[in-house]
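F.,

This is the one I mentioned.
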């Protein structure tokens, strides 16, 4: 029983240390990436971890699109396709009472003698993807899916959480 309580305590400590995905290139599945499809067309993605909110993932995608637009010498971008995927899986913690885990059958572990119980909790992650076209000049006012890159950088910039500098 002490071992089970220690394991649960360690998991709670680790969960408390989790922080949202920082704005950075993809590392260990999380962060931003882009792929050039044509001269002025890119696919941009941002993947967040389990504690990164959907709104943050979508804002980081727009911020990356604006950064890419300016870095390539363009002024505004237009979203031609945009999607946010939600991926949910369940984490189940098993506990035994009055016994121990003695064998594994095709349905999982069986306790003998005793009883196995489990609790599950959902783990959700978001990934936003967009295809963007880059343009020079003033953003057309009649295009709802067009964004002025400078304006996006200025407005979203204060909300961007970058990774902490590494000690070297």
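My design for it:
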């Amino acid at each position: 029983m002490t071992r089970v309580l220690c394991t649960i305590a360690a998991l709670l400590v680790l969960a408390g240390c989790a922080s949202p995905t920082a704005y950075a290139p993809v590392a260990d599945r999380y962060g931003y990436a882009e792929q050039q499809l044509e001269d002025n067309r890119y696919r941009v993605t941002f993947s967040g971890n389990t504690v990164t909110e959907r709104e943050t993932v979508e804002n980081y995608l727009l911020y990356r699109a604006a950064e890419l637009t300016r870095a390539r010498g363009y002024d505004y971008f237009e979203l031609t396709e945009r999607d946010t995927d939600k991926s949910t899986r369940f984490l189940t913690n098993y506990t035994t009472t009055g016994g121990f885990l003695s064998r594994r059958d095709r349905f999982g572990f069986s306790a003998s003698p005793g009883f196995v119980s489990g609790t599950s909790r959902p783990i959700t992650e978001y990934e936003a993807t967009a295809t963007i076209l880059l343009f020079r000049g003033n953003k057309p006012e009649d295009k709802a899916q067009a964004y002025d890159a400078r304006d996006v950088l200025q407005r979203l910039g204060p909300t961007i959480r970058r990774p902490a500098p590494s000690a070297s």
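The CA atoms of residues 94 and 118 lie 4 Å apart.

Talk soon.
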